[in-house]
Here is the input.
Amino acid sequence: MRSILLVAALMSAAPVLAAPIAYPETHRGFEVEKGPAGLSVPDPYRWLEADVRTDENVAKWVEAQNKVTMAYLAGLPKREQIRQRLTALYNYERFGVPRVKGGVQFFTRNSGLQNQSVLYVQAPGAEPRVLIDPNPWAKDGATALAEWEPSADGKLLVYAVQDGGTDWRTLKVRDVATGQDLPDVIEWVKSSAIAWKKDGSGFYYSRFPEQAGPKYLGVSLNQKLYFHKLGTPQSADQLIFETPDFPKRGHSGQVTDDGRWLVIITAEGTDSRYEVRVADIAKGEKPRALVTGLDHDWSLAGSKGDTLYFRTNKAAPLGRIVAMNALTGAISEIVPQGAATLTGASLVGNRLVADTLEDAKSVVRLYELDGKPVGVLPLPGIGTAGGFESSEDGTTWFAFSSFATPGSIWRYDTATNSATVVRQAKVAFSPDDYAVSQVFYSSKDGTKVPMFIAHRKDLDVSKPHPALLYGYGGFDISSTPGFSVSRLVWMEMGGVFVLANIRGGGEYGEAWHDGGRLLKKQNVFDDFIAAGEALIARGITSKGQLAIQGGSNGGLLVGAVTNQRPDLFAAALPAVGVMDMLRYANWTAGRYWVDDYGDVTKPEMFRYNLGYSPYHNVKGGRDYPAILVTTADTDDRVVPGHSFKYAAALQAAAIGDKPHLIRIETRAGHGSGKPTDKIIAEAADLWAFAGYWTGLTR
Here is the structure.
């Protein structure tokens, strides 16, 4: 209750902000996107696709847009109070899931307001000590420690440096005992696993060819798997596997816990459709194919001798666990498909841990190696569990959280099917002050869709309140309950938070994903619109109180539904969105997304995507909700040109006097590696904006 009283001041009245806004002038060109079969469409803001770091005109446009946006945000009531509350709540100790190698534990910790989490190492019987602190790496805190992997004996660590939010990585190697870096440095790494050879002599990694053109815009092609021997230059690295005849294919290397097998997973897009190759490392074997044809998911769970264990959706749309003979490729079923969606599996000691989703909530089951059920892991509540890295000693680690439950770290003993909490985050609020429920609603075609609803328990639910509806709906990614300081502040202020598990995600397996991609993408938008309508029909909120939010593919979602139903929403917050559905494959990782968005060189797909593309479907003559677009100058996954063009189209159209602004972060990317102070500042702006236009902070 005390935390609720701390934000009571946020509810006072405030004057209506002046409108309309004088937006910066945006040059309108005459470019045309020429599609297949003579199809074409105007693309007047194509010049905004250029790299803001190198193009003077785009840089000036960004500066002008940010000036207008920041001036508007500065005038919003309660913005500073929201920022202060976010800062207070973010100031709590939080931890990452540990990895144990050679008896040594490695884990990340953030003391509270550190811009970047620090990597610690802890030997048996010793106190934790700092191994890598990235906070001094950059004055603005925007250089981050990204991926890291200890060697099997825990004596060495490969770690990745991420600068300014980019997806590009620089790999370095640190001696764990001395804390000093070895001379080894690896460049041009992106979307790569890191796998040590068991003897610690080197590691496997994936990289792209050095790019001659724009580093942050060029299409990602020709990824290759290499082995780096410690103490040698990158130029001497051994090429392990490539597919020059298929430049769109990427390759990821994994080494089994016993050090025997190198397992290579090959993919072409974001869909979970892989080829599998193996090599016996000790024998110096060249990779040989076990599974060919990009048809199904094959996710390695672990190995025993000649047997590899996989999670697969072959003949099992919800997933099953199989054993594969590494010598012959013969497959036998261990854990058949069940009623729940199998999202992951790992071999821990002599048992299999199966991570499943039941109506978007985590349920973890344990099995013997012959498939005999052992039991269900007793989780601390309804929420999301993640981790469960494979190991040989029978123990593993996982994290657990929910909407009103801060993250906790647990040690899981598979021999006894018992879990012990090791670290518990302590946030300055009372979880008992909040209520979380799950309801189902009907989409346009009658499909039943679940959504989670969270709010303060003392909220008078007999009347509507400002609500924030979040969705993603793509790439087989499941949206599950999790803890977020920013969402907690929204609820503290008296708002309702809603998470809709719309189609396109992986909550209900392959069919749920397939029901929201390619020529069925409109189902995703229909599900989200129906969620808003259901919230209004249930009296939870009203049209004038409903805000929507989504990032990346979720930014596309927010942009599309805003065009289709501008009357339904009071505010829209599309973040780092894919807004040009005709040219998305032209940059960086965009070409991977053909699995979900389709190949627009085909007439049918070009027409379909044009029908919902946010940039192309901003229509004048209707009042749009207040819109705050967010992106970042170093986003080289969904390049900021998407959001730039979309914002320009919004500002040029006759869509009413509510603000249609864009906030462009500097030295930040798609989200990972963003420093804490930037996270807080952006969240304060979003909540001040959405809060004002939903009536939460007026």
The domain at 2-7+29-88+462-694 is CATH 3.40.50.1820 (Rossmann fold). Residues 427 and 625 are 34 Å apart (CA to CA). The first strand starts at residue 32 and ends at 34. Confidence is low (pLDDT under 50) at residues 1-16.
